[in-house]
Amino acid sequence: MNRFCAQKSAWMCGFLALAACTNREDIRVQLDAHHRQANQPRELDVQAQVTGPQAGLQYKWYSGLGEFDPQISSSPKSSYYFGPNSMRDRVWVEVWRENERVAQAHLDVSTEQAYQPVVTERPSKLQIGITEIPRYDPVGGPDTRADIAGKITGEVDKEYRVVIYARADAWYIQPVPYALHQILPDSTWKSWTHTGSDYAALVVRDNYQPVTRLDVLPSVQGEVFARTIVEGKRQ
Known about the structure:
Elements (H helix, E strand, L loop, with lengths): L16 E2 L3 E2 L4 E8 L7 E9 L5 E7 L3 E3 L2 E2 L3 E5 L6 E10 L2 E11 L16 E6 L13 E8 L6 E8 L3 E4 L13 E6 L4 E8 L7 E2 L9 E8 L4
Antiparallel strand pairs: 1-10, 2-10, 3-4, 4-8, 5-7, 5-9, 6-8, 9-10, 11-12, 12-15, 13-14, 13-16, 14-17, 16-18
């Protein structure tokens, strides 16, 4: 398994030092990581959050002192293991399509906070729930349709909106690209959606620019104020 050495002077401590990503052909990537288990601080699950056209992408994983397994993957995730006697490292991913590197990103990781997740969601008094859950349909598709609705608890700002996703092979915004849904005066919301295996709803600002297709949903941070995910209702 390949290893790459990084200069210590370039390292930054901490879990959330996400690097700005480069991109071509509208491909963007950002890395998240978390400890697999609280009692295994030297093992991380590393996830690449990718936006843009994702057909035919391949992921190559590197680090300064540790190892990835697998080092090359067709899915945007891999397992990282700290090297002997190392407590900090820099990990990075290269995203390739055929023989061209289309994006890359890096992340500084550490074992110092062994019992806390690397990526944490911002505490929020806002909660969003889905009260009308569409059916479970792992295939989904443009010819499917179901109603979806929910309710928000907490202080709802007039600028807040709801973004809906349904999952098939990935998360797709519903029911049309870039849709932002109004929150009614009684803090409820409703829409229709194409079906999927799972459904998600996010509370965002009205100037939020949602991504049409995602492998990983946004965390509760920045302009995302609440999030919920439910499995579709099985018949």
